[in-house]
Amino acid sequence: KLRNTNEPEFLQAVHEVAETVIPFIEDNHKYKDKMLLERMVEPERTLMFRVPWLDDKGKIQVNRGYRIEFNSAIGPYKGGLRFHPSVNISILKFLGFEQVFKNSLTTLPMGGGKGGSDFNPKGKSDNEVMKFCQAFMSELFRHIGENTDVPAGDIGVGGREIGFLFGQYKKLRNEFTGVLTGKGMSFGGSLIRPEATGYGTVYFAENMLKTQNKSIKGKIVLVSGSGNVAQYACEKATQLGAKVVTMSDSSGYIYDEDGIDAHKLAFIMELKNVKRGRIDEYLKKYPTAKFYKDEKPWTIKCDIAMPCATQNELNEENAKTLIKNGCFCVCEGANMPSTAEAIRVFQAAKILFSPGKASNAGGVSVSGLEMSQNSLRYNWTNDKVDTKLHEIMNDIHDVCVTYGKDEDGYVDYVKGANIAGFVKVADAMLGQGVV
Ligand code: NDP
């Protein structure tokens, strides 16, 4: 703690893991006194660098770039890049730390890492985004590689940015390798990668509901965010018969009582991915919907909540309101969207609650499958990747139940995910000695 006093998000993420993993270590002789958690909370390497670039007016802009190479015990560092003005060491360390456990849960051979920049893509032209990505990669390229560290997207980094980053890496290294995931289909991308995190979150929710003999069909779902994860969570939930009634962005949320069906979602995808507009523009096309400026959707009555925007977007008060309104399942699509206090409220009420590191692991899982396809120089079909994604999410759910089921039968998915994620990494670290 003394080393990380200015890193509240990182401390929050570590605290949540420590609460469940320390008692497990104490009870298991094999892991005791090996300083495993102490080693795991210290990144193997933290890179911080200057990113100077020229904007459209010919003016020099300077941003800060980061890559946190957190843990490589079970595979190359793997995790997304985030471009958002709020990016700092604390946020990237929390994301990198969670990524270690998440990647372990996927059963694929991937270590954990995270990176990004305080660059704000909002309001920038395609040319400026490209210039920035090229400048960012001009330093990052010397630290990454298909067998070393394989970044992907996250907030503010989608297909467009990954394409620009990949182009610059290829130019500098003079090699075509699977060094980034989330690539375009014409240059090594995997089918289902764009959909994977959102779809995986819904597959995980289905599994949780099944433990109570329920299904997602006919349920009212709140989704927050309107980016990559939110869009595909909405798509899959709707395909499976649920009614998604909210989506949001940093300006507020829309509430459509009739449900955001496939047509309406197509409008949102065009608005967000192509026009890069704001969510309230939904009302121009669908005037019966409502827009709530600067608010979050958690006061709307629902069965299931899927926070898919960003960290700490759902607090204790929101959690109490959700429960009061009858919500019985919260499945995180974003990373750490619920505060520690909110999680305590969900667990005290014994509702179904899954932490992002379990329920949003579908994205990195298909990234792992993209790496495999790149190594094979081969593309798997849509069905094959979706089936594998489904299997992985089922397996993650089952291992959470194995480690998280309490004596009274309640499944503590936080405990389950943390312990299951810890065991594989800890075993690998023990096997490799004090490194
Ligand atoms: P996108 O950039 O595609 O979308 C992010 C969405 O969240 C946007 O609607 C954005 O609104 C909103 N948002 C971002 N920051 C804030 C904020 N501070 N306050 C309110 N709203 C905000 O990102 P993704 O969909 O890829 O990521 C969403 C979450 O899912 C993140 O927590 C990410 O770490 C996590 N995640 C993503 C994975 C992936 O494969 N993409 C994999 C696993 C986890 P606005 O446009 O107004 O900023």
UniProtKB/TrEMBL annotation:
Entry keyword set: NAD, Oxidoreductase
The keyword NADP is annotated on this UniProt entry: no
CDD domains listed in its UniProt record: NAD_bind_2_Glu_DH (cd05313)
Any one Gene Ontology molecular-function term assigned to this protein's record: glutamate dehydrogenase (NADP+) activity
UniProt keyword Iron present: no
Family: Belongs to the Glu/Leu/Phe/Val dehydrogenases family.
Record note on quaternary structure: Homohexamer.
Name listed for the protein in its UniProt record: Glutamate dehydrogenase
